[in-house]
């Protein structure tokens, strides 16, 4: 009990990792897969109509005839990879969750789709292949620490063909406007964190100096205490531009979303298209 009180009262250091991980915990991986496959609302995957609009915009801007190979980082169970494959791309999908990758491979076989899947941590990945498009969709970039973000951008730059493009989206600081730090709790019988009776303590911590928020969950059952850190860094346009230019990207465009809509004053998300060279500048617009 003393350990629990100490854990519950302590604010973690910025980007401190937890001993448990939602992508590898035996129970939460099943719940995460279920959430990924539910495309009726924005949860682990966006609504299906939003997914389809994004696929259509990307395939119009960067058609498979000119950009034939595509790497999808954080691909989950294949919601986007399957649709990219059907648009004519040669697709590779990478995800940390073995549960999601197993599902994705089975789904691809059932549909006779030729998709190459890897179960790996993409921040630690070494790739010999080179791709025309690399995607990182639904704000996954913001869950990484500053060190891992810098490392990933360097890796992505090296994995791209000379005319390649990185497409990803992020949350803006406005997403958390007016959201205070808080502590809440709930008891469930068969919920997201456990398939038995579970008391879950949920903390929201703000790190104002870094535009970062931590959602911490402490899941308490009769036999176990597990702790999960879910980090979410939010970005400014200037911060992204500096990081991408430091990685070597020379032509960068910003949009409201993965549908290519122009940025507005009250947006909570931003989509970035970053080219390795200026030769394909006309493909991504001029909002750089």
TrEMBL record:
Keywords: Transferase. Residues 71-164 form the Methyltransferase domain. It comes from the Bacteria. SUPFAM superfamilies: S-adenosyl-L-methionine-dependent methyltransferases. InterPro entries: Methyltransf_25, SAM-dependent_MTases_sf. GO terms for molecular function: transferase activity. It holds the Pfam family Methyltransf_25. Signal peptide: none annotated. This is Methyltransferase domain-containing protein. It comes from [Clostridium] innocuum 2959.
């Amino acid at each position: 009990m003393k350990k629990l009180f100490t854990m519950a009262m302590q604010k973690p250091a910025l980007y401190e990792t937890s001993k448990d991980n939602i992508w590898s915990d035996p129970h939460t991986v099943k719940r995460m897969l279920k959430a990924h496959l539910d495309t009726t609302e924005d949860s682990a995957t966006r609504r299906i109509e939003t997914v389809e609009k994004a696929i259509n915009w990307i395939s119009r801007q960067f058609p498979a005839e000119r950009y034939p190979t595509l790497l999808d980082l954080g691909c989950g169970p294949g919601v986007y990879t399957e649709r990219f494959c059907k648009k004519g791309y040669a697709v590779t999908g990478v995800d940390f969750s073995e549960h999601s990758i197993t599902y994705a491979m089975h789904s691809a076989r059932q549909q006779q789709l030729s998709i190459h899947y890897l179960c790996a941590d993409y921040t630690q990945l070494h790739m010999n292949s080179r791709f025309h498009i690399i995607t990182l969709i639904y704000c996954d970039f913001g869950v990484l620490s500053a060190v891992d973000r810098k490392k990933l951008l360097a890796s992505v730059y090296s994995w791209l063909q000379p005319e390649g493009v990185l497409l990803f989206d992020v949350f803006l600081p406005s997403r958390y406007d007016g959201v205070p730090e808080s502590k809440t709790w709930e008891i469930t019988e068969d919920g997201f964190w456990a398939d038995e009776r579970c008391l879950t303590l949920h903390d929201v911590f703000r790190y104002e100096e870094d535009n970062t928020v931590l959602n911490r969950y402490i899941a308490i059952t009769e036999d176990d205490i597990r702790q999960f850190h879910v980090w979410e860094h939010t970005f400014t346009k200037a911060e992204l531009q500096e990081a991408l230019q430091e990685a070597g990207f020379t032509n960068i465009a910003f949009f409201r979303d993965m549908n290519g809509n122009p940025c507005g004053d009250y947006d909570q998300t931003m989509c970035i298209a970053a080219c390795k060279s200026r030769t394909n500048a006309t493909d991504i617009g001029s909002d750089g």
